[in-house]
TrEMBL record, chain A:
Residues 4-231 form the ABC transporter domain. It comes from Pediococcus ethanolidurans. InterPro entries: AAA+_ATPase (IPR003593), ABC_transporter-like_ATP-bd (IPR003439), ABC_transporter-like_CS (IPR017871), ABC_transporter_ATP-bind (IPR050166), P-loop_NTPase (IPR027417). Coiled coil: none annotated. Keywords: ATP-binding, Nucleotide-binding, Transport. One of its GO terms (molecular function) is ATP binding. The keyword Nucleotidyltransferase does not apply. This is ABC-type nitrate/sulfonate/bicarbonate transport system, ATPase component. PANTHER family: ABC TRANSPORTER ATP-BINDING PROTEIN, TAURINE IMPORT ATP-BINDING PROTEIN-RELATED.
From TrEMBL, chain B:
It is a multi-pass membrane protein. Keywords: Cell membrane, Membrane, Transmembrane, Transmembrane helix, Transport. The chain crosses the membrane at residues 12-32, 66-87, 94-119, 125-144, 188-209, 221-242. Coiled coil: none annotated. It is found in: Cell membrane. GO terms for biological process: transmembrane transport. It comes from Pediococcus ethanolidurans. This is ABC-type nitrate sulfonate bicarbonate transport system, permease component. Belongs to the binding-protein-dependent transport system permease family. Residues 59-243 form the ABC transmembrane type-1 domain. It comes from the Bacteria. The keyword Transmembrane applies.
């Protein structure tokens, strides 16, 4: 039984159909990417899964329970870190807990030991403006983790980072996922990022957009050093680009 | 080098004021304009000192009216903004009326309010409330509406209720708008208080002004004008001070 799945999700804006019969699933501990060009409807799909938008038809199912149109079930992170400039990093990170009516003290006690795991030591009392782009993104990820949900939806979370920082955050994120047993659904338009991070990749193409391909990335190949410089990596890239 | 330039720039307005005061003193001294019409700065200062206790007691009344009027105006403005933000049809219905209401000058409705509410403090407070609530309502609404939609979405995925959205996101996001409107409103409050006191009343700086005007005591007239101006400046400065205290993150460099 998959952790999260969507059944035949379709969505239109006025007369224009955006998504048609989207069926995807995410298993426990997996990182699955949805890859498609900009404007194809990836974010619409995410908003439906997060419960922010109603699908025209279809269902979102989390652990056998329908959660269509329900917010607060899945953690969610966007390209913009959306850290509140008027709250300290600690104040930002505990927001999901505060929304669930957990006391500030309790939330801070829960968050405090996680700062080290997320590489954010000594930033608790700083305002987001004082942090670098990479650190802000890690703080946003810690906030996402504080949702205390098993599934994280990440909408192009690393696309605003420079190449070197992005590279560091990628391997850091994969490590972290294993440590905290998080399952991730990732939206991206970056083919290389999708190959590097994912266990599986869904290709979203056409108008209205449908899932046209599902590509599994060999876990053994991914573990090899310099995977991103290997022929296997290039073969994946060539295949995906030809299909998009 | 850089520091020196900034000192010079800060010093410039003071220099201009000093030069203007000297010119004014000379104009008065050489009787270019008759002294009874334009008293010299020194005479104005003398009048200020002589009437100091009276000025202060009247200023107290004006400030009290301004305080209550402003308080009600701010509360009303914030409430209206929240209501308009919550209910789109109400926004469409009320907003144009709000804008039109601002074309009615305060001076024009002051006599009407005196007729309705008498010569006491009430008509003054009502007028101040009317004039101060508008900037607050409009600016707060702008702040609410300028809140990043993605941020609101994110908070909703966390399970935020409507009121939590206001408490954690919309209000803090609108603080800058709030304080800039408050700076406008405090000066409106003082001006409106004085205007309504002109029209009728027993005490306050406006009443003092009409009295000294009828007595042709122009030196006292200038003294009270400067006092009103100084009070407004002081209040604006106070608002700025509170703003810095309330919004410490603004000082963090981006």
């Amino acid at each position: 039984m998959p952790l999260l799945q969507t059944n035949y999700i379709s969505k239109s804006y006025s007369d224009h159909q955006v998504l048609s019969d989207i069926n995807i699933h995410l298993d426990q501990g997996e990182l699955v990417s949805i890859l498609g060009i900009s404007g194809i409807g990836k974010t619409t799909l995410f908003n439906i899964i997060a419960g922010l938008l109603s699908p025209e038809s279809g269902q979102v199912i989390l652990k056998d329970q329908p959660i269509t149109n329900t917010t607060g079930q899945i953690s969610y992170m966007l390209q913009k870190d959306l850290l509140l400039p008027y709250r300290t990093i600690m104040g930002n990170v505990i927001l999901p807990a505060l929304m669930q009516d957990i006391s500030k003290k309790e939330a801070e006690a829960k968050a405090a030991p996680l700062f080290k795991l997320f590489g954010l030591q000594h930033t608790e009392k700083l305002y987001p403006q004082a942090l670098s782009g990479g650190m802000r993104q890690r703080a946003a990820l810690l906030r996402t983790y504080m949702f205390n949900k098993e599934v994280a939806l990440l909408d192009e979370p690393f696309s605003a980072l420079d190449e070197i920082t992005k590279h560091q955050v990628h391997s850091w994120y994969l490590n972290l996922m294993k440590k905290i047993n998080l399952s991730t659904l990732l939206i991206t338009h970056d083919v290389e990022e999708a190959i590097l991070l994912s266990d599986r990749i869904y290709l979203l193409t056409g108008t209205p957009a449908t899932i046209t391909q599902e590509i599994s990335i060999d876990a053994g190949l991914k573990k090899q050093p310099d995977f991103e410089l290997s022929t296997a990596f290039l073969n994946y890239k060539r295949k995906i680009l030809s299909l998009l | 080098m850089k520091k020196r330039t900034s000192i010079n720039i800060n010093f410039l307005p003071v220099l201009v004021i000093v030069i203007l005061l000297i010119i004014w003193q000379l104009v008065s001294y050489f009787q270019i304009v008759p002294t009874f019409m334009l008293p010299s700065p020194i005479n104005v200062v003398k009048a200020f000192i002589a009437d100091f206790p009276l000025l202060m007691s009247n200023a107290g009344v004006t400030l009290l009216e301004a305080f209550w009027g402003l308080l009600l105006g701010v509360i009303g403005g914030v409430l209206i903004a929240v209501i308009m933000d919550l209910f789109e049809p109400l926004y469409k219905a009320i907003y144009p009326l709000l804008v039109i209401s601002q074309t009615v000058p305060a001076v024009a409705i002051a006599p009407l309010l005196i007729l309705w509410f008498g010569y006491g403090m009430l008509p003054k407070i009502v007028l101040i409330t009317i004039t101060t609530f508008f900037p607050v309502a409009v600016e707060m609404l702008t702040g609410f509406r300028a809140t990043d939609r993605d941020l609101l979405h994110l908070m909703k995925t966390m399970g935020a209720t409507k009121w939590k959205l206001y408490y954690y996101v919309k209000f803090p996001n609108s603080l800058n708008h709030f304080f800039s409107s408050l700076k406008i409103s405090v000066s409106y409050a003082i001006v409106s208080a004085v205007i309504s006191e002109w029209v009728g009343g027993f005490s306050g700086l406006g009443v003092y002004m009409t009295r000294v005007m009828k007595a042709y005591a122009y030196d006292k007239m200038f003294a009270v004008i400067f006092l009103i101006s100084a009070m407004s400046l002081l209040l604006i400065w106070l608002v700025t001070l509170i703003q810095h205290k309330v919004m410490p993150w603004e000082a963090v460099k981006k």
